[in-house]
Design brief:
6% helix; three-stranded antiparallel sheet; mainly beta; SH3 type barrels; globular; single chain
Length: 67
């Protein structure tokens, strides 16, 4: 099973969007970048509006305690 990734997207206008996804890279949907928020909602951003995207693996308790 793939570890979820904490996604942080910063737009050129200074907005920051965060989410938790099971993907290590963005997915384009009809020309927009889709980001799944933690509450289950999605936000779609135009690629030209995105200044920075960060994907960091989310380490869960089961992974840190595995031997």
């Amino acid at each position: 099973m793939t570890a979820p990734y904490r996604i942080t997207v910063t737009t050129k206008s200074g907005e920051t969007h965060t989410g938790l996804m099971n993907r290590s890279q963005p997915e384009m949907v009809n020309g927009f970048i889709g980001v799944a928020r933690e509450d289950g909602a999605w936000i779609y951003l135009a690629p030209d509006d995105v200044l920075k995207m960060e994907y960091v693996p989310e380490v869960g308790d089961t992974e840190t305690n595995a031997q």
